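Structure first, sequence second, as always.
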């Protein structure tokens, strides 16, 4: 990618947490002890080919009523959730002596579903899966909690999930202590403020400060064997944030020194995720590229 200085203006989507469906499931072993607990909201956006050879996206929210046949505890700890007309969503877990993670995420969708795919050209079951971790590794006997949304892109499918409570390898049928995802951890002020807020009810107005040019950072993503995405850029963002019901525009830089990055590459889609102290910017590269989401 060209060396560039990108000034990006974004509108923060806020977390428009509408009350949509959420499912809650518990997987038990033969002796009725819980090994997996999961509750979350997921939206799937699936691109399919219609009978007039056009592509169309359909979005479905995982409903609150699901079944969990095919899930298992033990050597293969698998959450296999089935919903609607022959759709399956599954997470395969792995652990070492300290942590566990979801090692394989897959969605099997059935285009025979006349409600979702009335005009699908190819009828049948399609599988879209990835090794991308659904969440960061979690210490054993801890419950992963993440209120913020996150997305995983697999072939033809974008999975958006939020308000996740999940634990695999549950011990003694009791959820362990909470493990908060990094996106949810609030920023800690660098210095203690000595002045107390004034007693009046007015909101302190953020004073706009002149802002330096952003530092150029170099980011690369490998597909396992080769670097597949290379970006060199300085990022300055102008974002609108909701402060006490009012939109406030704030300009800030992404500092490469404090920014962690990750990503993945697929045939058709690639992802570059930059995580600065309290900001996550995700670049999704499709045929063109666009910023899918930014969380602050
Ligand atoms: C489907 O959604 C993806 C990601 O949101 C988008 O890039 C793609 O253009 C959409 N396809 C159609 C046919 O609208
Ligand atoms: C999830 O999908 C449902 C149904 O299509 C839609 O109403 C809702 O707005 C979506 N939610 C998000 C956060 O995308
Ligand atoms: C989930 O269950 C369905 C139906 O039993 C099966 O076809 C599918 O392969 C299972 N998924 C996984 C990842 O095992
Ligand atoms: C495509 O499928 C829809 C729904 O089954 C049908 O109404 C329509 O006539 C089909 N169009 C073509 C070109 O086959
Ligand atoms: C996941 O990774 C394993 C090896 O680590 C590989 O065998 C498998 O094909 C990968 N699966 C996907 C869907 O990329
Ligand atoms: C998030 O999930 C919890 C249960 O795990 C539920 O009580 C809460 O209402 C949900 N919040 C939103 C905004 O969906
Ligand atoms: C498991 O839970 C039961 C009931 O809550 C409790 O009596 C028992 O001490 C627990 N065992 C361990 C090893 O934590
Ligand atoms: C798991 O975590 C819970 C809560 O922190 C604790 O009470 C329990 O003893 C732990 N169980 C084991 C086996 O470490
Ligand atoms: C900041 O405040 C906390 C709690 O009020 C206090 O424990 C800590 O010592 C303070 N730190 C500094 C640098 O003043
Ligand atoms: C990485 O990309 C290169 C070049 O496109 C390809 O040859 C290689 O097979 C890819 N590796 C993986 C693990 O996908
Ligand atoms: C980043 O680190 C370099 C080297 O330590 C330093 O020269 C530079 O000023 C830092 N940039 C920012 C924006 O903190
Ligand atoms: C993705 O790449 C694999 C291996 O190169 C190929 O078999 C598959 O057809 C590709 N998928 C798409 C949708 O291009």
């Amino acid at each position: 990618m060209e060396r560039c200085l990108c000034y990006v203006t974004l509108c923060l989507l806020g977390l428009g947490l509408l009350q949509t469906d959420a499912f809650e499931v518990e997987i038990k072993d033969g002796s009725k002890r819980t090994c997996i607990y999961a509750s979350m909201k997921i939206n799937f956006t699936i691109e399919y080919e219609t009978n007039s050879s056009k592509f169309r996206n359909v979005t479905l929210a995982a409903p609150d009523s699901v079944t969990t046949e095919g899930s298992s505890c033990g050597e293969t700890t698998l959450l296999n959730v089935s919903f609607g007309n022959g759709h399956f969503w599954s997470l395969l877990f792995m652990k070492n002596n300290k942590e566990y993670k979801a090692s394989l995420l897959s969605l099997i969708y059935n285009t025979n579903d006349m409600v979702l795919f009335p005009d699908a050209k190819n009828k049948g079951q399609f599988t879209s899966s990835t090794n991308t971790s659904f969440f960061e590794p979690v210490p054993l006997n801890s419950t992963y909690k993440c209120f913020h949304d996150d997305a995983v892109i697999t072939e033809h499918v974008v999975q958006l999930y939020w308000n996740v409570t999940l634990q695999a390898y549950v011990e003694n049928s009791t959820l362990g202590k909470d493990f908060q995802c990094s996106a949810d951890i609030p920023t800690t002020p660098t210095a203690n403020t000595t002045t107390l807020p004034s007693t009046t009810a007015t909101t302190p107005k953020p004073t706009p400060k002149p802002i330096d040019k952003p530092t150029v950072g170099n980011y690369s993503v490998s597909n396992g064997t080769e670097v597949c995405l290379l970006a060199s850029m300085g990022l300055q963002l102008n974002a609108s944030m909701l402060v006490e019901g009012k939109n406030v525009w704030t300009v800030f830089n992404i500092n490469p020194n404090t920014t962690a990055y990750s990503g993945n590459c697929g045939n058709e889609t690639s992802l570059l995720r930059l995580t600065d102290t309290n900001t996550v910017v995700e670049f999704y590269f499709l045929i063109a590229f666009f910023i899918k989401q930014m969380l602050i």
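Margin note: The chain has two domains: 18-184, 217-286.
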